[in-house]
């Protein structure tokens, strides 16, 4: 079947558009504060990964502008050849120091980090062992590698041990999200590293949602549990707390040097542009300088948890600023998003395959720049809209 014909068969998006509840690609017409303008109206942003509110910080914006003046708009080449600037190296050194690893290596996106690291390091003699709800980029990286990919049930250490028992001589690597991007729960790293030790496996953690959020100084999940030395590789992205775009992998120098010379996602793709690198660098500086931002993020997170509890809404297993609310049916999740937007609150819908069929949810995320009044307002509107759609409050 040719591509036009195949694409014409896809009608689901049009059907949802016709119902007036299409929730994707909603254009934001303002800067990215806690209030954003959509369809000409101010709405409360409760769906951004801009956890520390730094995407709109004057210092971050100024650093991006200054980097453009100094280095230009783009690099016109990959890190490998003409695309490495002084600021790439500086930020790599700063990140390695922050994450407490020997080295760090920048890629153009976090997605490319997972794709480019996993597919490069793990070959036919390996088993890539991943949590069933790991991020899509981890799954794609595993698919691109020649290793055997084995999934285990979400955060289930008995299931993980069962997998490790059946490796049959394959070299195992366990790869997990530190904070799971839909569920908002945290990987049990102490148990994972203990199992890795027992079965002589490597461990890689995706800290996309943990950097700036979890652990001493916002250093991520391994720091949160005090197991930094037991985790071999930590990946992060600039697209959340670091307020920009780009990604990095941190680990031993020798491993990163191997990646520098073999990872196709690094070698055959242009390097992150000066503005993005400088914005990430400025954001990292603020994270280190102003721990009160993280403290406020957690105060706000607790405020939201308590608010939801007060209206009898279960937040599932969420232990972080990512808070899912179970809706169930896909269309209902879209309807709730639309109604909440009409009521002045932006949230994201999550449907299968990101979550199992029938367990669609809306996903809220808290920012340190939210006020308590804004969070209380979001809770009040959620209560109102769930009532309107007669949606059951407690998740199983
Ligand atoms: C857990 C996780 N890993 C990786 C990524 C990819 O990061 P980026 O947005 O930098 O491509 C994301 C972002 O969606 C994520 O949530």
What features would you describe in this structure?
The structure is a single chain. The protein is α/β, with parallel strands linked by helices. It contains 15 helices and 13 strands. It has helices at residues 3-8, 12-18, 58-71, 86-99, 110-121, 136-144, 157-165, 189-198, 221-225, 253-262, 264-267, 274-289, 291-310, 330-342, 372-388; strands spanning 35-38, 41-45, 103-107, 126-131, 148-152, 171-177, 202-206, 233-237, 247-251, 322-328, 345-346, 348-350, 360-365. It has a 7-stranded mixed β-sheet, with helices on both faces. Strands 1-2-11 form a 3-stranded mixed β-sheet. A hairpin with a 2-residue loop joins strand 1 and strand 2 (41-45). Helix 13 (291-310) runs parallel beside helix 15. The longest helix has 20 residues, at 291-310. The protein is globular, with a radius of gyration of 21 Å. It starts with a helix and ends in an 8-residue tail after the last helix. The mean pLDDT is 96. Pyridoxal-5'-phosphate binds at residues 109-111, 114, 135, 137, 177, 181, 206, 208-209, 237, 239, 247.
Order of helices and strands: HHEEHHEHEHEHEHEHEEHHHHEHEEEH
Number of beta-strand segments = 13
Average pLDDT confidence is 96
Main structural class: alpha/beta
Instruction: Estimate percent helicity.
Output: 40-55%
| Number of helices in the DSSP assignment | 15
What overall geometry do the principal axes of the alpha carbons give? globular
Rg of Cα set = 21 Å
**Most strands sheet:** 7 strands, mixed
């Amino acid at each position: 079947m040719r591509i036009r014909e195949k694409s014409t068969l896809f009608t689901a998006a049009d059907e949802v558009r016709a119902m007036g509840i299409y929730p994707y690609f909603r254009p934001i017409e303002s800067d990215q504060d806690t209030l954003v303008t959509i369809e000409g109206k101010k709405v409360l942003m409760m769906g951004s990964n801009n956890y520390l509110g730094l995407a709109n910080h004057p210092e971050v914006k100024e650093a991006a502008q200054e980097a453009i003046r100094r280095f230009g708009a783009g690099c016109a080449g990959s890190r490998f050849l003409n695309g490495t600037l002084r600021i790439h190296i500086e930020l790599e050194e700063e990140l390695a120091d922050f994450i407490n690893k020997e080295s760090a290596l920048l890629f153009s996106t976090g997605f490319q980090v997972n794709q480019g690291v996993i597919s490069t390091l793990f070959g036919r003699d390996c088993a890539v062992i991943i949590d069933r709800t790991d991020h899509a980029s981890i799954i794609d990286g595993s698919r691109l590698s020649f290793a055997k990919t084995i999934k285990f049930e979400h955060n289930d250490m008995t299931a993980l041990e069962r997998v490790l028992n059946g490796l049959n001589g394959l070299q195992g690597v366990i790869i997990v999200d530190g904070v799971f991007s839909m569920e908002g729960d945290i990987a049990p790293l102490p148990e994972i590293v203990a199992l890795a030790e027992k079965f002589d496996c490597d461990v890689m953690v995706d800290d996309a949602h943990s950097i700036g959020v979890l652990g001493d100084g916002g250093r991520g999940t391994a720091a949160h549990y005090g197991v930094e030395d037991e985790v071999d590789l930590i990946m992060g992205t600039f697209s959340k707390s670091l307020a920009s775009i780009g990604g990095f992998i941190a680990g031993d120098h020798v491993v990163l040097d191997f990646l520098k010379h073999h990872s196709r996602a690094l070698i055959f793709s242009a390097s992150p542009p000066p503005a993005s690198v400088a914005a990430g660098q400025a954001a990292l500086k603020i994270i280190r300088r102003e721990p009160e931002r993280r403290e406020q993020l957690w105060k706000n997170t607790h405020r939201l948890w308590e608010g939801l509890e007060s209206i009898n809404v279960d937040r599932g297993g969420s232990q972080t600023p990512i808070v899912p609310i179970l809706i169930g049916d896909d269309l209902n999740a879209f309807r709730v998003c639309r109604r909440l937007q009409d009521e002045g609150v932006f949230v994201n819908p999550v449907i299968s395959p990101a979550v199992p069929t029938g367990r669609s949810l809306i996903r809220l995320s808290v920012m340190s720049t939210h006020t308590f009044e804004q969070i209380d307002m979001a809770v009040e509107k959620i209560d109102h809209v769930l009532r309107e759609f007669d949606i059951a409050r407690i998740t199983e």
